[in-house]
Amino acid sequence: MLGTSPKHVPPVARTATLRHLELKTSAGGVLDQAWLERTLALPRNAALMELDLDQLCARLLAESQVVSASITRHFPDRLTVRLTERVPVARVRVELGGTPRDLLVDPQGVIFHGVGFEPALLDSLPWLSGLTLAPDGAGFQPIAGMAPVAQLLADAQFSALRLYRAWQSVSLARLASDREIEVTTKNGTIVVFSARGDYFVQLATLDYLIERLADTPMTRARIDLTLGRNVPVMIEPPAPAESGAAPRPASVISLPSPTRPNLGKST
Fold this sequence. Notes:
Blueprint: E1 20-25, H1 33-40, H2 53-61, E2 66-74, E3 78-85, E4 90-96, E5 99-105, E6 111-112, H3 119-124, E7 127-129, E8 135-136, E9 139-140, H4 146-159, H5 161-164, E10 167-171, H6 175-178, E11 180-185, E12 190-194, H7 199-212, E13 220-224, E14 230-236, E15 251-254
Parallel strand pairs: 1-3, 7-10, 12-13
Antiparallel strand pairs: 2-3, 4-5, 5-6, 8-9, 10-11, 11-12, 13-14, 14-15
């Protein structure tokens, strides 16, 4: 946090009134001027030199969405605030005081409330499941092992956006024990990724399999991408009207060699 030493301020400037409050945020930042003014709650006609910058910075950092904050005086009448904000990659639903709340998760596993994000962006984020949150004061400790999950989500957004948009939730239940990440799509299909493997290769494989299965009557499937070129696929066919239908035994689909599917960047 930066400020200007009173020793280097001309006497006439020491009583100068603050007239301009400037906000500069990191790339992707969504906190706005109205949020800044509410959070700092500066008194009217405050003198620039009378402001306690440490106290003001603490108010900014009390918002869990803020990673870092700095405040600089610019004489005669300007205060500049620079913020670095967290960028959400997933959502998690928790109970706070007996009330369900939807919180956001950043790539480092930090859980925060989220202020100012567009509803469309929030609706596009997958939910996290298969984990236990540890309380930490008024919030929660960071989610352990989030890095490989965040990398999978980033790779999917970059190289397979069409697939990513169909993802409903991501389970960490088997990540620590088996290094596996289970993704459930909006139609109920489960895709198992290996955290030890190349996500781009697995996403290309998934794209190929989905195209191959496009004409197969089914309600949902389970696709295991953790076994390399031999991919077990269990398909659950549509249930007949008169009775339920059991899933078919898993079939193993061997990928063609040496061709690798080209996903491109879907839009």
